């Protein structure tokens, strides 16, 4: 199975910290498990440091930087999906963006922010999602801005769509595709969990990182639809299985992290879904 990039590996490992930081030696040794050369890790560290995604402490050890916090919060939100949703009154939240000429990194950041919060493009300049998140429109507007939404975009509540627009908006989410994704991820978790204990430790670390990461990616990108569009029971089953698998993954990585005096709260998981705008938008 494809491995992480040096950048995603660094961000994922640093996301396990409860406090403190991680030395370069730990990052380099972990990279070797995935066939990544030390030089590529050091180059990625320099670029992430320059971008503010990571920070270096007085001992030369690394931790996540403030620039990584908004997206990292989205990725780690897979644990409380149910608590984030609210009953749906049939209204929608819309993002109106008249700057169709936006290009490059700004356009990718804008599209990524919307994708991370479940928006879909209804027509040029208008993306929307069901208004069923507990945060409310004002808080969602602030969160989208932190995630990279274009400054000139307007976030608002839409009600009473015409019948054709309502039907098209609901169809943008392809419920059957989402259900199939939940089932595939659940089957992969269960198959891996069944044999993970029999693998040599480096292989178990690698497999738990990759398979757990794919499941986290799916839940982190989940649009969190109201049950009027998609019944959540298959997503909830995947989330329960991932909680169990995450505990097993922590066991696989615990000795390695302890050897480098790294406090951690969860298993490293491949979060490339939130570490690459082009890949994310295409997801």
- Report the oligomer: single chain
Shape: globular
* Main beta-sheet strand count, sense and barrel state: 4 strands, antiparallel
Taking pLDDT < 50 over at least 5 consecutive residues as the criterion, the unreliable ranges are 276-283
Could you tell me the number of beta strands? 6
Mean pLDDT: 89
State Rg. 20 Å
Helix percentage: 40-55%
Terminal CA distance reads 18 Å
Number of domains: 3
Strand order of the largest sheet: 4-5-3-6
Q: Pairing-aware structural class of the strands and helices?
A: alpha+beta
The amount of beta strand, in percent, is 5-15%
Number of helices: 12
Order of H and E elements: HHHEEHHEHEEHEHHHHH
Walk me through what this model shows:
- With 283 residues, the protein is α+β, with helices and mostly antiparallel strands.
- The protein folds into 3 domains: 6-69, Arc Repressor Mutant, subunit A (Orthogonal Bundle), CATH 1.10.10.10; 91-158, 2-Layer Sandwich (Alpha-Beta Plaits), CATH 3.30.70; 173-282.
- The chain has helices at residues 6-14, 24-33, 38-51, 69-76, 81-84, 104-116, 136-147, 163-171, 175-195, 201-220, 233-259, 277-282; strands at 54-56, 62-64, 92-96, 120-123, 126-130, 154-158.
- Strands 4-5-3-6 form a 4-stranded antiparallel sheet, with helices on both faces. A two-stranded antiparallel sheet has the order 1-2.
- Strand 1 (54-56) and strand 2 (62-64) form a beta hairpin.
- Helix 6 runs antiparallel to helix 7 (136-147) and helix 9 packs across helix 11.
- The two termini are 18 Å apart.
